[in-house]
């Protein structure tokens, strides 16, 4: 039994174009995702403690990802509160509400 819902794995796989995922593999994928998240978070906590801090930061998570040869996450350095929206048709699935920006505004 994983703390990552199988429904979340199914929705994520569909969002990246994998629509024919067998229901038999969902529990194994959920367990693997949970393991990898725990592994990254344990490494991030080590980075936090090494820096003699008690608050985990996005930099700690990025450092943990880098140590595991995973590309760091971009775009979460803001101090603004995040606004979550419930995904349509899913009771326990949320996403971060983001406003659309024009590419030309970014490069100017």
UniProtKB/TrEMBL annotation:
Subcellular location: Nucleus
Pfam families: TAF
Domain of life: Eukaryota
SMART domains per UniProt: TAF (SM00803)
Major localisation: nucleus
GO cellular component: SAGA complex; SLIK (SAGA-like) complex; transcription factor TFIID complex
Keyword Nucleus: yes
Biological-process GO terms, alphabetical: RNA polymerase II preinitiation complex assembly
Ranges where the TATA box binding protein associated factor (TAF) histone-like fold domain occurs: 2-68
Gene Ontology MF terms in the entry: protein heterodimerization activity; RNA polymerase II general transcription initiation factor activity; transcription coactivator activity
InterPro entries according to UniProt: Histone-fold, TAF6, TAF_TATA-bd_Histone-like_dom
UniProtKB keywords: Nucleus, Transcription, Transcription regulation
Family membership: Belongs to the TAF6 family.
PANTHER family: TRANSCRIPTION INITIATION FACTOR TFIID SUBUNIT 6, TRANSCRIPTION INITIATION FACTOR TFIID SUBUNIT 6-LIKE ISOFORM X1
Protein name, per record: Putative ovule protein
Lineage, uppermost ranks: Eukaryota, Viridiplantae, Streptophyta, Embryophyta, Tracheophyta
């Amino acid at each position: 039994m994983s703390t990552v819902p199988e429904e979340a794995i199914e929705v994520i796989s569909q969002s990246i174009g994998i629509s024919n995922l067998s229901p038999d593999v969902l529990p194994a994928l959920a367990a693997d995702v949970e393991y990898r998240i725990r592994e990254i978070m344990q490494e991030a906590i080590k980075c936090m403690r090494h820096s003699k801090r008690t608050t985990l930061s996005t930099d700690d998570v990025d450092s943990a990802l880098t140590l595991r040869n995973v590309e760091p996450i971009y775009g979460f350095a803001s101090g603004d509160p995040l606004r979550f929206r419930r995904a349509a048709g899913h009771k326990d699935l949320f996403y971060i509400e983001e406003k659309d920006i024009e590419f030309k505004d970014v490069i100017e």
